Amino acid sequence: MPPPTRQTFQQQLDAVEEELQNHGRLVMRALDRAMQALLSGDAQLADMVIAEDDENDAAYARIEDGVVRLLALQTPLATDLRLILAMLHINLHLERMGDQCVNVAKLTKLTLDLTIASELLESFQRMGEQAEAMTEEAMTAFAERNAERGERLVTMDSVINSENRNLSRRIMALGADEQTREAGLHAIIISRCLERIGDNAVDIGERVAYLVSGEFREFTDASHPGE
Questions:
Q1: What is the pTM of this model?
Q2: What's the whole-number mean pLDDT along residues 31-35?
């Protein structure tokens, strides 16, 4: 039977981790609603995503406060310290993902009077579905302490990256009138927001690998692409 102090620490640690999983669910809800608003041109749903970002910010603050308290009031063991640091970083990535959902919602409102080509909407749908799947996979990998699932996110992210790279070519093929150019510009920024959500999911996967192994490494390295 662990001493009472250790029991209290474990309970607090478990509570922060549960908060983190709830934060992940908030982000997935925001992403789902942001994509629905974008694909249907629903201004009210976009406004809901924007307004509910307060929940995302509050979750971020609660988790950060919980982590600070654990570090200040307890003396974590090495494995516990890795978990606490991983939660701190994952919390930040989730907050950024929530902000990108808000950006998509705001850009949706800017495109309501514009016509976005159906092929671009189809691309957004594929990117959004993949981003949602990656977010769920990242949080499951963390819950299971599964480094292999975390690294799988790199392959999943290639779908979003491919769509993002091809978007400019699709836009250039649509025409050169002023409205098309304006819609295309917004589309490029939306695509970038979704691409960043995927990148943050990969970053969470890297933190899972660190938690499991105790060694931090980037799954992909832009400065050494051949490695």
A1: 0.90
A2: 98
